[in-house]
Write a structure and sequence with these properties.
mainly alpha
């Protein structure tokens, strides 16, 4: 729903958005409808965020309150902070796995994937599907948002969210 809200509020047609992404119109409509059975990759979601003029990590949370976002970000205060927002979730997965003292083999098993696939995701050499990332997040006991935003400073996240709200004309909550 956030994808649809951002697209509509900026006056971007499905045709234009899908052409710029590039994605088929059918795929774009499926994503806007929230269909969970489609196999979308991390890179595809980055392209969608780019078309919508927001950072990827904003897509999931920009309609949440600042307090909810702060609570999600503060769950791991010892996470290393990085100045860039162009972060692959792999480095955050690796940090979380180490933080929880979990082996790669264990996380792979808990995420129902091969150790080699998890290693490629952690080393940022894979273009994981959102389904894989959701499985990893579940196995680590965190949200998908945390996999993206873990190492981004709270104020940077809030600034990105506020910019997305302004784009969408959503009143800050």
């Amino acid at each position: 729903k956030n994808i649809k809200l951002l697209r509509r509020s900026q006056g971007i047609s499905v045709e234009k958005a899908s052409l710029d992404a590039p994605l088929s119109e059918t795929r774009w409509k499926q994503l806007e409808a929230g269909q969970r059975n489609i196999n979308t990759t991390f890179d595809t979601m980055q392209r969608i965020a780019h078309v919508l003029n927001v950072e990827l990590l904003v897509l999931e949370v920009f309609s949440r309150s600042d307090e909810e976002i702060r609570a999600m970000v503060s769950a791991f205060p010892n996470a290393p902070q990085q100045s860039t927002t162009d972060i692959h979730p792999g480095s955050n997965i690796l940090w979380l796995r180490d933080y929880q003292k979990m082996t790669q083999k264990r996380l792979a098993a808990d995420s129902d994937m091969s150790t080699a696939r998890l290693r490629d995701i952690e080393h940022c050499t894979a273009n994981p599907t959102i389904k894989y990332l959701e499985r990893i997040a579940n196995a680590l006991g965190v949200s998908l948002f945390t996999l993206y935003a873990l190492t981004v400073p709270e104020q940077v996240i809030l600034d990105m969210v506020h910019a997305a709200r302004k784009l969408s004309k959503l009143v800050t909550v």
